[in-house]
Specification:
The protein is α/β, with parallel strands linked by helices. It contains 18 helices and eight strands. It folds into three domains: 106 residues, Helicase, Ruva Protein, domain 3 (Orthogonal Bundle); 175 residues, P-loop containing nucleotide triphosphate hydrolases (Rossmann fold, 3-Layer(aba) Sandwich), CATH 3.40.50.300; 110 residues, Arc Repressor Mutant, subunit A. The protein has a five-stranded parallel beta sheet with strand order 2-3-4-1-5, with helices on both faces. A three-stranded antiparallel beta sheet has the order 6-8-7. It binds a DNA duplex (33 and 33 nucleotides) through helix 16, strand 7 and strand 8.
Length: 417
Amino acid sequence: MAQLNTFFEQFLQKSSVFADKKALQSAYVPDNIMHRDVQINQLAHILAPCLRMEKPSNVFLYGKSGTGKTLSVRYTTDQILHLAHKENIPVRIIYLNCKLKKVADTEYRLIAELARAFGKAIPPTGLPTDEVYKIFFRALDQERQVVLFVLDEIDQLVKHAGDETLYNLTRVNAELKNAQVSIVGISNDVGFSDQLDPRVKSSLSEEELVFPAYNAIEIQDILRRRAQISFKPNAIEDGVIAKCAAYAAREHGDARRALELLRVAGEIADRKNKNVVTLQDLDDAEEKIERDRFLDVVITQPKQYQAILFAAFVLWEERKDSVLTGELYGVYKRLCGRLSLRPLTQRRVSDIIAELDMLGILTAKVTSKGRYGRTREIVLSLPSSLEGKIKSALEEELKLTTAESKEHLQQESPVQP
DNA sequence: GTCAATTCACATGAAAGAGACCACGGTCTAGTG
DNA sequence: CTAGACCGTGGTCTCTTTCATGTGAATTGACGA
C-alpha cells in the first residue's frame, strides 16, 4: 500500500499538459459556438415565441453526429431559460436522449420519462401505457406554461417504438387547456424523415434545420479554441491540431471525435510524463480510441452475439474472404454445441448479423448470387492490427481455450471441397 | 443469340410466445391496544 | 384494528421462434434469327 501512497503523491505533484480538461469533455457548452451562427440564429428565431407564451413551431434538426446539433440546442435553450427565469416567464425545457437504453427507447419509457421530468414518480414497468399518458397530461396541464421537449436521437425512438408515439405527442396540444407543447427533434440520420408517417412528418417538421459536417478548417478552429482553454500554453506540438482535425474531417467531420482524440492524446502524453503533446501521442491516441471502442463493444455483447462474432472470426481467419450467412450459421451451430449454448434459429442469427453490422464490427452486404441464392457477404471491418486482440478477448469471454477453437477449425475445414 | 421463366438461399416481415419484471387490489395473518 | 405478507391479475419489455412472403440475378430452356 505504501507504494500506492507514493504513487498518489507523485500523481498530485506531477505536472500535466492540461490546464483544465473540462473544455474537451462532450458535455461542455462553450459561451461561443463557432461556425454554427446561422443555425443557432434560425433556431433562436423559431423558438423565440415561447418567451411570449406562444407555441413555437416544432423543429427538426438533422446532421451527422458531432456536427454540433445537441450543442446548439443546449446553448439556445440555455439562453431562453436564462431570460425566462429573469423575466419570470413559465417556460420549461425538457431534454431527453432517446438513444440511451432503458431511458426513452419505447413509448412507455418516453412518456414515463417526460412525466418524471414533472416530478411524477412512474414505475419502470407495470402500469398500462395510457395510464402513464394520463398522469403525464395531468402533470403537464397543471399550470399555464410553454413546454419544449427536446428529443435527441429521435430516430432511435422511431426505430424501436414506431412513429405512433410521435404522432401522439404532436397531438398533445389538442388535449391541453393550460400548457402548450413544442417538440424539437434531433436526428443523426438525414434520411430519417422519409421513414415517417406523412401525418407525423408534416406536423413534426414545421421547421427544419440542417447541420452540415464541419470541414477540416472549421474543426481546426474549434480545436484551437478548446485547446487554448484546456491545455497549458505551448503544451501542444506544432501540427498536432492540424493532424487531429484532418483525422476527424476524414471521418465525416465529427468534431466530437476530434476533441476526444485530442484529449486522449493529452492523457497519453501525461502518462508518459511529458509536457508536450507530440504527433506520436496523437497517433497512439488514435489507436487507443479505436481499440477501446471495438473492445468495449465486443465484450459488452451478449453471449449469443459473441458466439456469432467468434464464428465469423474463425471463418474470416481461415478464408480472408467474405463469409456467407449459411456458412457462418453452420460454424456457429457447431460452436454452440461446444459451448453448450442453445443455438438460435437462422432467422434470429440473421438479425444479429445485421445488428453487428450496425455496431460497425463487421460489414454485411446483401448480395444476390443469382442461381445460388441471396445472402449476406460478411466481412470483418476491424483494423487488422486489432484482430488478434479482439479474437483473444472473445475467446476469454466465451471461456474457450485456444485448443478448442483450433479443434473446431479442423472440423470445419473438410466441409468445403 | 435473346428473352422470359425458374430457382436458389437466404432476407425481410409479422405475429405471437416465453420469461422476467412490476403495480395494484384483495385476502390472509400476526401483532398491537 | 391495522400493518405487513402473500396471492392473482394484468401490464410492459426483451429476446426469440414460427410462419409467411419477398427478392436479385445466374441459369435454364424455349424461341426466333
